[in-house]
Amino acid sequence: MFSELELNNILTNVDQLLPQFGNFILQFNTIVIENTINVINEADGSLTIEVPKEMPDSVSQTLSQKIRILDRLVMTRTGEIDSLLQKGLVIEDQIKEQNPEFISKIIPKITKFQEVAAKYPY
Predict the structure, then answer these.
(1) Within a domain: 122
(2) Which of 60, 102, 112, 122 is 20–30 Å from 66 (CA)?
């Protein structure tokens, strides 16, 4: 049996991870837009990065590396946050069995997560 304390710990963790998640997405999108880079998400989950022809190779390699790192950070945070939200839903279901009047605290976090994640179309 889970408790509201465990749920609050999950909510605190989500509150800490969401700004980092959003920041990684912002950095990724900023690099792509400011440098006119085309990013394609391949079927296998890998990224193809197309840079302008006039961009020097050294700049291209640096930006490609930054994009790949940020993508990994976004994917890692996505998994971490999703896992926490799923655990939160399970806990809330158990709490609701004991207290039908309980108002979800995890649903607003899920909505916020979805809003932030929608800014990352890759």
Answers:
(1) no
(2) 112
